[in-house]
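Data availability (excerpt). The following record was deposited with the supplementary files.
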Amino acid sequence: MTTITMPQLGETVTEGTVAQWLKRVGESVEKYEPFVEVSTDKVNAEVPSPVSGVIREVLVKEGETVATGTPIAIIDDVSSGTAPIEQASPAATKAEANRMAGDEPVPGFAPVPSAPPRSNGQPAVAAPSAPLDETLRTASPAVRRLAREHNVDIRAVKGTGNAGRVTARDVTTAAAAGPAIATGPARPAPSGTSTYGEPIPGTTIPFTQARRIIAQRMVESKQTAPHAWSTVEVDVTNLWRWREREKAHFERETGYKLTLLPFFIRAVVQALQAFPLVNARFTPEGIQVLKEINIGIAIGLPANLIVPVVKGADRLTIKALGVAAGELIDKARRNKLGVDDLAGGTFTVNNTGANGSVLSAPIINGGQAAIVTMEAIVKRPVVRGDDAIAIRHMMNSCLSIDHRVLDGYSASGFLAELKRRLESMGPDGAL
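Predicted structure:
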């Protein structure tokens, strides 16, 4: 018998919330197979089982928040050759789990061994003990959840995505084909959403833990930091041409598409080096000017907003920034970001222009002094210095600041430096 504890998903994380049980009492689970989703104020993650066995007891309800190291489930470990024991009352089981965990909480989800359980005279319940199928390893959590909702065995689905990855379309196509790959009773979609996860008009969608935390953090930011914002207009025509020249080679070499984001981050880093007060944070003792330049990238997902961080951005070339950003965006879309990917940001870039926005006033990420946006790039006629009219690629960039830390001088100087750096890029530069 193995006791599973609430994992510590990061050095500063002290508690977690059981967002969803992926396995129910009596269901078998394979080693390394996700069996519970856990949410913290840093990340939403699926926790893999450390053993193969059968879920014997669930000790924490969905939506309940407990301290890290708290027992959350008991698994009968079939690999040990022990049989499931008689069902105990929830109170007795929880007390036994706490006793087994000892005085010191066990970080992560390491198993806590116990004495051999009492046998009820019945043979052990068999469960697969082979390594988790590669399809389960590579399919995203959202796709696996969709497969469960549609009563589809994802391991029997032929993937059409990159490297044979099973996609949501593959799952829905398999579901429409009939019950040949059914796995058991289908689980309903979350209340207020359709099977595919879109909101249904006229319904109320319950808060996910992640959405609840986002709401709390945004309110805290607006109530704590007095926001002010400014914007500049940037001519990125030469930068656009540079990117057009390099994008095919970059994608062949790295596997990622070359957007304007790494160029923009590079210019941001240079502007931060010229105006280091923008790379700072407010503390009760004073303004802390940060040595590291770690750029957070705001990524909007269908049901979430997440800000992974490019660490040491001031030490990276444009090419390296493109690869780092591409990896983080890919991990975010596959729900594979870890706590380390989300920690340590000192300044945030928000690519609102990807959705067509031309002007915005973003909310500052808590603990930082500013956030800047890349707005949509629009071709339009522009009057140049010699009074000639030309068609140029134009982009607005908006900066929100914490007015406790920054005043108009630093904010305007930063934006002017950012504009100068962007307009001086390309088309003959080197990545």
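Summary of structural features: The two ends are 55 Å apart (CA to CA).
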